[in-house]
Amino acid sequence: MTQIALTGLTKVFDGNVTALDSLDLTIETGEFFALLGPSGCGKTTLLRTIAGLENATSGAIRLGDRDVTRVAAGSRDVAMVFQDYALFPHMSVLDNIGYPLKIRGQSKEARGDQSQRVGEQLGLSHLMERRPAALSGGQQQRVALARAVACHPSLFLFDEPLSNLDARLRLEARGFLKRLQRELGVTTVFVTHDQAEALALADRIAVMEAGRIRQLGTPRQVFRRPANTFVANFIGSTPMNLVDATIGGDDVEIAGGRLPVPDELRGVLPTGTPVIVGMRPEYVRLSAQPAASSIVGEVAILEHLGATTLVTVDCDGEAVSATVPEDAEPAPGDRVHLSPQPGRMLLYGRDDGELIETRGGDTA
Fold this sequence. Notes:
Strand order of the largest sheet: 6-7-8-3-9-10
CATH class of the largest domain: Alpha Beta
Shape: elongated
Largest sheet: 6 strands, mixed
Structural class: alpha+beta
Radius of gyration: 24 Å
């Protein structure tokens, strides 16, 4: 198991494209760590730079007590699983699993025994003589994992390994992958653009944009208290409500109504301060009856999500959403009242999009 320490890590490609911008990051020993962000944010470049497949322009990479910034990929003791699995089509499953051991000079008998043991652990015993073309996507993914596990690396690097699977297989693979990592205890860095995967799998998440980390925290911290509107927009299966508002004393004037300023910010922001109110639909109460400190609007859209329904309400020209149980959904055109659950409304600066807070720590 290995700690990863990145200091001032920068990667600039030809044409002066900065993919990584002076990153400082420590990933703890045995941690399952997710790099999350949209396409082009630098997450895969960061993974490849840790692996040694890309050379850092400047900065340092330490794996445990070793500075590996200029060490070749083959000498870093890491195992990487790619999005397309990168299996050798002409080799059997057994030979694919054992190939890294062959490169290390192990005998055919030794690597065969090791490949059989790992294949059995991952439910591949009956497939060992098949070639990749005869396997399903989920089976190919397990072969790629088995090849990584067989090396007994000090570090796993996963580059969107679940993205080629269908929805059901992806859910099964998520659980399998988390169990496997827990059993092996190997430090793992997992790249994904799927926030649901990151929230489900990771011990901590780094949300990236344009080569920088916009927020670092546990899944609960990142979901409940996004550090800025970029993260608020990116995290969550239903987008966070982000509505322009203005401070009016101890209230926030928003969408034709008034909501109380969060307790920790009461008296801090001058009257007239422009802000953005953030409320997750999951934390918004919807009622047909008038409620104190609520905003009022007309139901515009209903989106069925299974056990819940996402209700979008037109509040004085602003679209505000709430989730309700499937048996409690209103009808389109109904007049309803919306109010945030206590402690669940956030305020962001209108100019910089950063969370406004007067104290640190996780308030979740």
